[in-house]
Amino acid sequence: MTIVITAFERSPDGGKGLARDTRVRWALEEAGQPYEVRLVSFRAMKEPAHLGLHPFGQIPTYEEGDLALFETGAIVFHIAERHAGLLPDDANARARAIAWMFAALNTVEPPILELANARLLEGDQPWSKERLPLVEDRVRNRLGQLSARLSAADWLDGAFSAGDLMMVSVLLRLKSSGILDEFPNLAAYVARGEARPAYRRAFAAQLAINAGKPPAG
After folding, report:
1. Is the pLDDT of residue 129 over 90?
2. Of 110, 196, 214, 216, which has the fewest CB atoms closer than 10 Å, so is most exposed?
3. What is the CATH number of domain 3-85+198-210?
4. Residue 205: CB partners within 8 Å, gap ≥ 6?
5. How big is the chain by its Cα radius of gyration, in Å?
6. Number of Cβ atoms within 10 Å of the Cβ of 217
7. Can you give the pLDDT at residue 135?
8. Residue 198 DSSP class
9. Distance CA 19, CA 40 (A)
10. Cis peptide leading into residue 48 (ω within 30°)
11. Could you give the residue range(s) of every CATH 3.40.30.10 domain in the chain?
12. What is the DSSP code string of 157-168?
């Protein structure tokens, strides 16, 4: 059965790899699974056909035979469980990798998204100048905790796993802010993730769409 994912017809980030379909592409590349991409316009995302796949009108979605999934974390988890390469064989290590997936999405990403909104959507508000340092401090607090846990290790818990895939994907949102560079071990951690061949293939495929080339898969 062919795996089909959806992606932005034109990504808001212009192909920088920040759209969430990149996370799914990366997981599929790590697992060595071929896939096809169906491009969706912003208008089509709010139409009944797409809402039947994703009730909140977002991307990505994942279809494989009779199975249709939404939410990036759920999709990556499904890929990791179904195919080798993203979760350890040892039961305890597997559970820890899954815990890191949840931590990336539920603990680390929220303040990072709050920072993005504060800068991009609220920058012209009269209270923005006072609020922004508070939001930045919340991000630094989380990064400090993560940095201490990672220490000098290459990955969060032994070998690379879906937990690292999700965490690196979340931290990538901070590259342009300069905050990530305040934590050299985290900046190096993200660079290791970006250097993985599977990530590079996923990034190139998303970039090609925004450069007007056919989607790769």
Report:
1. no
2. 214
3. 3.40.30.10
4. 25, 37, 215, 216, 217
5. 17
6. 18
7. 83
8. H
9. 13
10. no
11. 3-85+198-210
12. TSS--HHHHHHH
Task: List strands edge to edge, sheet with 67-70.
Answer: 35-40, 3-8, 61-64, 67-70
81 half-sphere exposure, CB direction, 13 A CA radius: 9
| pLDDT digits 0-9 by tens, 51-63 | 999 999 999 999 9
How many Å apart are CA 147 and CA 77, to the nearest integer? 24
Buried b (16+ CB within 10 A) or exposed e, 161-186: bbbbbbbbbbbbbbbeeebbeebeeb
**Type of residue at 82:** R
Pairing outcome for strands 61-64 and 35-40: unpaired
Per-residue CA distances from 193 to 5, 19, 78, 100, 203 (Å):
22, 16, 20, 15, 12
The token pair that represents 86 in the structure block = 């993203």
Fold of 91-196: Glutathione S-transferase Yfyf (Class Pi); Chain A, domain 2 (1.20.1050)
pTM: 0.92
Q: Which of 126, 145, 122 is nearest to 135 (CA)?
A: 122
Q: Could you tell me where in the chain the CATH 1.20.1050.10 domains are found? A: 91-196
| pLDDT at residue 217 in the model | 44
